[in-house]
Amino acid sequence: MTMATMNDALAAARGNRRKLGRDLAGLFVILALAVVGYLLFPNNLALLTRMTAIALLVLSLDLVTGYCGVATLGHAALFGTGAYTAGIAAVHFGITDPLLMLACGILGGVVAGLLCGAVILRAHGLPQLVLSIALIHLFHEFANKASSWTGGSDGLAGIAPDPLLGLFAFDLWGRTAYVFGIVLLAVVFALLRLVVRSPFGMLCRGIKEDPIRIRAMGASPKVTLIKMYMISGAVAGAGGALNAISTQVVGLDSLSFTLSAESLVMLVLGGTGSLFGALTGTIVFMFFEDIVSAANPFHWLTMVGALLIAVVLFAPKGLYGTIAAVAARWQEARR
Amino acid sequence: MQTVFSIAVDALAYGMVLFVISIGLSVTMGLMRVVNLAHGAFAMIGGYIASYAARDMGLGYGIALMIAVFGTILVAIPIERLLYRRIYGAPELTQVLMTIGITFCIIGIANYAFGPTLKTIPLPTGLQGSVDLGFRSIATHRIFAILCGLAVATALWYLIEKTAFGVKLRAAVDDAAMAAALGVRTEIVYAVSFAVAVGLAALGGVVGAELLPVEPYYALRYMVTFLVVVSVGGAGSIPGALVACLLLGGIDTAGRYLVPEFGEFFFYLAVIAIVCVFPRGLAGRTR
Fold first, then answer.
1. Which of A291, A306, B22, B127 is most buried, by CB atoms within 10 Å?
2. Exposed, middle or buried by CB within 10 Å (0-12, 13-18, 19+), for B24?
3. CA A243 to centroid of chain Cα atoms
């Protein structure tokens, strides 16, 4: 009995250490990839920064779809709200400090997350999907209509962020924006690893598996999911704010159904329910898009479609999930 | 008065076209529990085939319509056998991704084959012009669309309520496993209803080409509309789908006439309100 408990405790400690090791390895990989990207594409830092912002959106989508099992095709609502909040704060209220703009974006994302969560979580299955689609269109139409604040279909231009910390100006090549984005991504990633592994994160997974049992245990699935939606909103809002700061313009496309659908595709391509999967999917998808769409937009659509069908048929766990499963099996065999 | 009348006629025609296209989606969704985002793509294939037959080959409107319906069914059968079969009973997310993938592929291939332009389907002389009602005239093709919708609704009602196939279909919708245990060949029921659904989508795509123009991104643009109609009506219910189409068609048309600067704002607001109040759709049953 004591023996078993001790063994369990040892195993748990070893497991924790291994997880911590994987976290550090993950952070290291992000930073290493960032350096490699900087060295390989010094003239295309804008694309890499955009990729970082989208990675934040996909991470935030993973929180609600991968960890909570909420099917949504309207997640760009949180991203776009963050972008517009940061942009409006800069243009109409003169808040041009990048960190304050980031805070505004996060706040906007949290509010949008609360709103979307409250509506989307009212239904399940198909009605849930339809609600999320209706919401993203509603946000889009609203931003289009409130053109005195958002610039309408021309986009919100004239965002001029101050130098970061008063030291590093946002230069024409986007070096500062890139470093800012990577640091933001690394910090968010580390925080999310903690959130996902906390009892709260476990509760969310439990709700995904069996909401009725969770309710029987005395926890409220709805309140928990809305909290997760707000966290997700903060992450997506940070991504939106990063996009607004780095491109200095916010367009209606950041609140579009297309962006929502694309982020879902990226997430599933990488693998749901894993933060590494979300990052992998974003990087692969966006590089692929950059290369193919330059050739022909219709071929691009066909390729994405074929890619999606192939992933659903042959790698339902996504790229990262499949690789991780193969690696685990390989390790098992070696032991 | 004049405006109210035009709104009513346009809303009726639009709602009927929506009905013809999405009723097939509603039936297959109720039957197979597949969230099928590719349904609009089948309507688009129908439109493309009819346009090619009528405009480029110079065939008559009726013949082009027939070719479109059967051609689309022919295209859809291998897709059903190879791809849809694998996602029956899969989680919704998987179904959404697979069907979005199919939609993207169809758009890409259709535009590669037929060119990325707006496809018109020339109307026969009998459907051009308008009918004078004494105080107001209505475009003939709108009446044609409304009649088509009514005909489809009647035929489907007869098929489902009065025929042996309808009995099997309803049994499979209610409880597929039990129906199979009682000797209903559910896979044949599935295949036939999928073919009928695709054929109706193609029919709606051709008949409604004046209201929903057939263009390269047709499948993506209206994908959401069809899904919304089914969800609001309740999957698997013909009266529910009819009411939802007329209601949403009315709201959308009235919104476009009265406050055009808001676009589809009121349409989606109404959708959110209805889905929140009736999470299972207007005619949805509790399960």
1. B22
2. buried
3. 13
Residue B287 reports pLDDT greater than 50: no
Measured in angstroms, the CA of B64 and the nearest CA of chain A are apart by: 26
- Taking the C-alpha atoms of A226, A254, A234 and B100 in order, what is their torsion angle to the nearest 10 degrees? 50
Contact A90, A66 (CB under 8 A): no
DSSP string covering B170-187:
HHHHH-HHHHHHTT--HH
Chain B residue closest in CA terms to A302: B105
Report B:100-159 residues touching A (Cβ under 8 A): 100-109, 111-112, 116
Q: Which residues of chain B are within 8 Å of residue A126 when distances are taken between CB atoms? A: 29, 35, 92, 227, 230-231, 235
What pLDDT digit, counting tens, does each position of B195-218 carry?
888 998 898 888 888 788 888 788
Closest-approach residue (CA) in chain A for B229:
A130
d(CA B255, CA A258): 24
Amino acid (1-letter code) at residue A250: V
Amino acid making up residue B18 = L
For residue A128, how far is the Cα from the chain centroid? 20
Task: Locate B264 and state its tokens.
Answer: 């589809």
Per-residue exposure over A167-190, b if at least 16 CB sit within 10 Å of its own CB, e if not: eeebeeebbbbbbbbbebbbebbe
Q: Which residues contact A260 (CB under 8 A, 6 or more apart)?
A: A72, A73, A74, A75, A76, A77, A132, A136
Distance in Å, alpha carbon of B14 to nearest chain A alpha carbon? 20
Token readout for B150 is 């009514």
* Residue bearing tokens 């982020």: A263
Q: In this complex, do A313 and B271 lie within 8 Å of one another by their Cβ atoms?
A: no
Q: Supply the pTM of this predicted model.
A: 0.84
DSSP summary character for residue B131: E
What span, in angstroms and rounded, lies between the C-alpha atoms of A143 and A153? 9
ipTM above 0.90, yes or no: no
